[in-house]
Design a protein that fits this description.
about 375 residues; alpha/beta; 14 helices
Length: about 375
């Protein structure tokens, strides 16, 4: 089979199952509104949970950082790319989350890949939640370690796998809040089982940081758990992009010496680090924003309870409606778009077969009228 034949076959198969992915050119992308092809939509597909991407202080932070240090880092952090603004942000994150060190990465995907790529060796095992993010599962499956997946949020399933013998080290992997189902991991019980087996726990809290816990410190803080490895990302509640790994001194030094993802990547722009410092300050002072987000979540859930599609048991900003088939999910998404609401349809392989869904995300920036319009459109679509 030629390269071209292989490519054509894969594309044909993707179209045949209504799984075709498409990028849309946005002309204006704000937290609660979207402008596409000259049409305005109420926006329910943004991970900007607190609306900080549009916050004047965050925008001013980026501008200030660019004026100080230019548009880019110019090199890897191991050459000349590690700026005082990076160091300041790492120190602030470590202090805020109760760790001795924080290391910045260019994205959450890169951070998750880096952790597993560096740590997992041949005789080790990785026990990952079945619904963990693709960045975690991909890295684990391509590592020399043995990957075993336990049933989603099932502590007994994890315990059974931990009871199996292992000659190497054990790494347990989970998300704090799951990106597609919106539910929370039972971190306390998972941490207890991991400690019992003398393993390490890696938590990706991309969707918990900023919106849960005291001062928005996230899922682990909320459940009084301190994993050996905590990844927090900045493309959600922080409203920017990038990520950080929180860990102890020795682990941080190990990454700085041996992680190819850090050594051979250009550092994030210092201006971005400056914007993230401003976002962190807003998160620390953001109780009112979190209260508004929670009120919006409850308003939506109350109005969606009678819909015929499965509403997941999630108290987070992620509120999936399970539709089932790919074509049905796409058709419902289009009906909402016709009503002026932008909601992305999520299909396999991102989610398990037969669970295509609308992934509705709510933010602190949404007004009650936005949610009411979405609910009205959903109820109208039932009989449409």
């Amino acid at each position: 089979m030629s390269w071209q034949h292989r490519i054509t076959k894969a594309l044909t198969q993707r179209r045949a199952v209504d799984g075709w992915r498409q990028r849309h050119i946005t002309e204006g992308n704000h937290t609660r509104s979207l402008l596409l092809a000259g049409k305005h939509y109420r926006h329910f597909s943004s991970n900007d949970y607190l609306g900080l991407s549009q916050h004047p202080a965050v925008i001013a932070g980026w501008r200030q950082g660019a004026e100080q240090a230019g548009a880019g880092a110019g090199a890897s952090g191991h050459v000349t790319g590690f700026h005082r603004l990076h160091a300041d942000l790492e120190a602030q994150l470590a202090d805020w989350l109760g760790y001795s060190r924080a290391l910045l990465f260019i994205s959450g995907f890169a951070a998750n890949q880096a952790v597993i790529h560096l740590l997992a060796e041949k005789n080790d095992r990785i026990l990952a939640d079945k619904l963990a993010h693709a960045s975690l599962l991909d890295a684990a499956s391509h590592s020399p370690a043995q990957l075993r997946r336990y049933s989603h949020n099932d502590v007994q399933s994890l315990a059974t796998r931990l009871d199996a013998p292992c000659v190497g080290e054990t790494l347990v992997v989970t998300e704090g809040i799951f990106s597609m189902d919106g539910d929370s991991a039972p971190l306390s019980a998972i941490a207890e089982q991991t400690r019992r087996a003398n393993g390490w726990l890696l938590v990706d809290d991309a969707h918990g940081i900023g919106v849960t816990g005291e001062q928005g410190r996230g899922s682990c803080w909320q459940q009084k758990v301190k994993p050996e490895l905590l990844v927090v990302t900045f493309g959600k509640a922080f409203g920017v992009s990038g990520a950080a790994l929180l860990c102890d001194d020795a682990t941080a030094d190990y990454f700085l010496q041996f992680s190819r993802h850090l050594i051979y990547s250009t550092a994030m722009p210092p201006a971005q680090a400056c914007a993230l410092q401003a976002a962190l300050q807003q998160i620390q002072q953001g109780d009112a924003l979190r209260q508004q987000l929670n009120a919006n979540i409850q308003r939506f859930r109350a109005g969606a309870a009678s819909l015929p599609w499965q509403l997941m048991n999630a108290d987070s900003a992620i509120q999936p409606l399970i539709v089932g088939g790919n074509a049905q999910a796409m058709a419902l998404s289009q009906k909402l778009a016709d009503a002026g609401c932008w909601v992305s349809a999520i299909r396999p392989p991102t989610v398990p077969p037969g669970t295509a869904r609308l992934r509705i995300t709510l933010t602190a920036a949404h007004l009650p009228e936005d949610i009411d319009v979405l609910l009205e459109a959903l109820h109208d679509a039932v009989g449409g």
